[in-house]
Structure formats: C-alpha cells, structure tokens
C-alpha cells in the first residue's frame, strides 16, 4: 500500500465515520423534534383538559411542617406555581391518620383538625385554592386559575367504630375513605400486614361500606389485602376506587399493587384504579434495590431520630440512592402501568393517583412534582392515545365513578 492510498483510505474511513455520525445525529434530532412536539402537545392538553390527581398527602405533610405553597417551594411536591405549570385542576387531599392513633387519643379529632387545616389553606389563599365537594362544582370551577381541593380520607380509624361518622365526614366534604392503611385496623386487613386479622373485612368494615353507599362516599380499596378487596367489591352497591395503587403484573408478589384479576374485577364493577407514581410501585428491580437498602437507611433514620418523610430523611435517601447507583422510575413507567390497565379493562377504568407528599425520594424522573403531569401525557401520546382517551385518564374516569356513587346513594335514599 502506497502512502497516498493509505491516506486516501484513512480519509474515506474518516468520511464514512463522519457520515454515519451525521446520520445518527439527524436520527436523534428527528426523534428529539418528535419528542419536543409531543411535549408541547402534552403541555397544551394538560392546560386545556381537566387534570385530577386522586391522592396527595398535602394535609399531613403541611401539618407536620408548614410551607408557603402559594409560591414555588423547594421542599414540597406540591405548590400553586408548579400545579399551574403541570395543568393540575383538582388535588384530592388525603386526610391521613397514622395507625398509631387507633385506641390511642382521638383519630376523629385528628382527622377533623386536618380538614380544618386544609380549609384554612383555601381561606388563606382564596385566589389560588378552593375547597370543592361536588363533580358539578369541579366541572364548573376547573380551569379558572384555582387548584380545587377535594378531601379524601386515608385510614378509616377516624370513624371510631361508629357508622354515623361516615355522614359527619361526608358533611365536612370528605368524598372517599381508604378503609385501611399499613396495618389491619377495625375495618379491614391491610396489604402490608400478614396477620390476616379479619380474613378480609371486619363486621364494622362491612357496615361502613353500607353507610358509605347510603351517603355517596366512595369506597377506596388501596392498601387493602386481596381478600378485603374482593369482599369490598362484593359488598359495595356502588363502584369502588383504588385512589393510589399500581399494577402487580410489574411487581410480582407486591400485594400493595393490584393483580390483573383484581383490576378486571374492579373494572367490571364500574370502578377506577388511579396509578401511584412511586418508583417502587412501578419497577420491580427498584423495589428490590430499595428493599435491600431499607435496613441501612432505617438505621440512619433511627440514629438521627428522623421520620421517613422529614426533609433530612428525604435528602439522606437521595444521597444514598446516588452513592449506591439506585435509579428512579420514569414517566414512561407510569404510562406503562396506565396502558396495562387499559389493555386489561379498557380506557374507562384508569386515572392518576400520584401519592405526592407521601413517597419521599421515590418519584420518577420528570415527575418529581405536580409540574410533571405533562411528561406522563407525552408518554401516553407516544403510545398512541388521543385527546379523548387522555381526558378520561386525567380525570374523566374518576368523575364518572364519583357521579355513579352519588347516583347509587340517591337510589338508596328513595
Ligand atoms: Zn397510601
């Protein structure tokens, strides 16, 4: 090989490499443009459609540590500014009572205080937040610059064993009750609890469901054990909701998520599953990694007298994840779970139930806060969902179920 031909061939190699790089660059820029276009459209959709998130732990989070959520906040998942960026119209605020209150102090008073506190937020910033307790009010009030606060109740122990309290909380604006939380309570068995105290629902749990049907309170099956779930669907004369659960098909053995048979059963009864955004709910490998990291993280929290949602605890978890290379789920994973429900049960039975303010450092990339709904919508667009489908997922389905529950209550009162 002569010097000239060698330099010619190396030049042509260089050209070929440069050409390939150009092709690759233009492919990725075509892809980039498509993604940008989807994101623009997603933002527009989030702005123009009614976006409802069925589960945010705003009251508990803020009663523990108040922040000014009327401006952009550094430490919360929710504030007014980011809610507007994300197109959020309705935030269902979970009035959460820790299980330690059962038989210990007054869970009812604790829940009432959180209700008063949430109403106080709307009083403090009336141009930004409004309390809402009817679907007609939501349909009329959405898109006018407010975040509408609806109340839900997580853990049924504030009922204090008396079905009359279902009416009391309904009259205070609560529209769903998650019967149980992490441990079996006086109403039901919990998914995280292996003691199976009731083998499903307790007699009071069954009575509570009847009372909820009578007043038009939605029954929330998130956190229930599998048997409690099936008994609740059988007992309830109205469709039920799962306010913040995901699909067990992606996380085998994780009972906190719903398996395919449960999703089909819930859908056949007219209900809706609102998908939880937690990385551990969405991706099995992340759940395994975080479960393995649990003892080390918990030891640190104990040593420093921290609770898992304290700012310092969340920061430590974030550092730990970075140091140990534990990633997060993505908006695509959220969309995958939504799509799974749609494939199983159709477009009418799925929605959004982020669990914002309740997950700590476990939120997906791109969906770290309430500005993140468009990222999920963009992934739904990529999967071929159209505006009508997306409107159902973003709130239409939840409102339909709420209306159905109200209708059943009207029927029962005649
Ligand atoms: Zn929860």
Order of helix and strand elements from N to C terminus: HEHHEHEHEHEHEHEHEHHHHEHH
How many structural domains?
1
Small-molecule components bound? zinc ion
The name of the CATH topology is TIM Barrel
Biggest pleated sheet: 6 strands, parallel
Q: Compute the gyration radius: what is it?
A: 24 Å
Give the averaged pLDDT, no decimals. Answer: 94
CATH architecture: Alpha-Beta Barrel
CATH class: Alpha Beta
**CATH homologous superfamily - what is it?**
Metal-dependent hydrolases
Strand content: 5-15%
Helical stretch tally? 15
Oligomer classification: single chain
The geometry reads as: globular
Uncertain residue segments: 1-6
What structural category characterises the helix and strand content?
alpha/beta
Strand count: 9
Can you describe this structure?
The protein is of the alpha/beta class and 414 residues long. The protein has one domain (11-283, 329-413): TIM Barrel. The chain is 52% helix and 10% strand. It has helices spanning 3-48, 58-64, 80-86, 107-124, 135-141, 164-171, 203-215, 226-235, 260-268, 279-282, 284-303, 311-323, 331-345, 373-382, 387-413; strands at residues 52-56, 90-96, 129-131, 147-154, 174-178, 218-220, 241-245, 272-275, 350-352. Strands 1, 2, 3, 4, 5 and 6 form a six-stranded parallel beta sheet that branches. Strand 3, helix 5 and strand 4 (147-154) form a beta-alpha-beta unit. Helix 6 packs across helix 7 (203-215), helix 7 crosses helix 15 (387-413) and helix 13 (331-345) crosses helix 14 (373-382). The longest helix has 46 residues, at 3-48. The protein is globular and about 85 Å long. Residues 1-6 have low confidence and may be disordered. Zinc ion binds at residues 154, 223, 244, 358.
